[in-house]
Design goal:
By secondary structure, the protein is α+β, with helices and mostly antiparallel strands. It is built from ten helices and ten strands. Strand 6 and strand 7 form a beta hairpin. The longest helix has 34 residues. The mean pLDDT is 94.
């Protein structure tokens, strides 16, 4: 398997690094010192720079003003966003746009995607169900009423919902079918209750009480929600990889300067072995991430494999969920008390890592899902 990135993908990385070069992870108050959200809105100036560099339209087709790139390119940009803890709904926005582009009606795509690519319209996704543990599509019901659909239910932990213009909401029809509705934030019957993430960012509990959705704004393609769910999971793995890489770099720089007994602590075997183990974690996170992203794109192109793409996504989630936790825990240990200093950014990376771990879910659950897939698809 060749994981060499194309020229277009590498150009996306260079553009992202240029945009994120001046982003300071400590640009907002510390979540450790703030009782509520660290800020009322996401980083709008950064959002404007992403739009100006055509990174918000990266995965859109040329007809919608985009570059027509794929999930791998998006994950490359998300990796760079994770390095600096970029406070923007880049993953949710681009993933929802990709779902609309691939499965939505031409009218819906024309209404949302050009403005989404310019950043003047913000999309987010409700993907965590009622509690964060149950399937998101089961948390909301969708029933037909004339030419419209009526939505009822609750979704929790919707990122930056208060700042979004449209929210992609998975739902079920009662007949075993999952659908995806694009709902404007100002829709009648939709209410947002304030929530705050472990990283200090605004979330919202989304309550839908008889929300009426035009049929053109509902995507009933059987694979639409499943692909969006997998893309969100894979993108979260990319954020975890970027965060882990930044933390390991930070740890190497600190242990290279910190001295005990007249020598840098990085030269001590116990320190070097722990850092090496975390480097191995990052490499495993990286290779499983690119495998999952490649499978998502290959599946779209009709290419198959011995397991569905959900198997590759499950493996990436196993490594990202446990790997990012081990990386930040080792970093805290090797930094000593300095790592808990709120004037130093490591504590903020730790909070974001915990939030990503919670979003990904426990590795044991993904191992069980992978086992079920292997039982259903014997390799031979």
């Amino acid at each position: 398997m060749d994981f060499t990135f194309t020229e277009e993908q590498q150009a996306a990385v260079e553009a992202a690094r240029a945009v994120f070069a001046d982003v300071a992870p400590d640009g907002v108050p510390s979540p450790a010192l703030t009782p509520g959200a660290v800020a009322e809105d996401f980083d709008r100036p950064l959002w404007a720079r992403l739009a100006g560099s055509d990174l918000l339209s990266l995965v859109l087709a040329e007809e919608h003003g985009g570059a027509g790139l794929d999930a791998i390119a998006l994950c490359l940009v998300l990796r760079e966003a994770g390095r600096v803890l970029a406070r923007v709904p880049l993953l949710e926005h681009c993933a929802a746009a990709m779902a609309v582009q691939a499965h939505g009606s031409p009218e819906l795509a024309a209404a949302l995607l050009p403005a989404a690519g310019r950043g003047t319209l913000v999309l987010t996704t409700a993907a965590h169900g009622r509690s964060g543990h149950d399937p998101a599509e089961l948390a909301v019901t969708a029933r037909r009423e004339g030419a419209d659909w009526i939505l009822d239910g609750t979704q929790t932990a919707v990122p930056w919902a208060q700042s979004a213009d449209w929210i992609a909401v998975p739902a079920h029809t009662g007949e075993g079918d999952a659908v995806l509705a694009l709902v404007p934030r100002t829709a009648e019957g939709l209410a947002l209750a304030e929530q705050v993430s472990t990283s200090g960012e605004r979330l919202a509990e989304l309550a839908l009480d008889g929300v009426r959705v035009d049929a053109a704004h509902l995507i009933d393609a059987p694979e639409a929600w499943e692909r969006l769910r997998q893309l969100l999971a894979t993108g979260t793995c990319a954020l975890a990889l970027g965060l882990g890489a930044a933390v390991l770099t930070m740890t190497g720089q600190y242990t290279g300067k910190r001295e005990q007994f007249g020598f840098p602590v990085a030269t001590f075997q116990a320190v070097a072995v722990q850092a090496a183990d975390r480097y191995i974690d990052l490499r495993a996170m990286e290779v499983t991430l690119w495998q999952a992203a490649w499978r998502l794109d290959a599946a779209t192109g009709g290419a198959g494999g011995p397991l569905p793409s959900s198997g590759d996504v499950a493996v990436a989630k196993i490594w990202a969920s446990e790997g990012v936790r081990r990386v930040v825990q080792t970093a805290q240990h090797l930094h000593g008390g300095f790592g808990a200093d709120t004037d130093y950014p490591l504590h903020r990376y730790h909070a974001w890592a915990k939030q990503l771990e919670l979003q990904l879910g426990p590795a044991a659950a993904h191992e069980e899902a992978l086992g079920d897939l292997l039982a259903a698809h014997p390799l031979g």
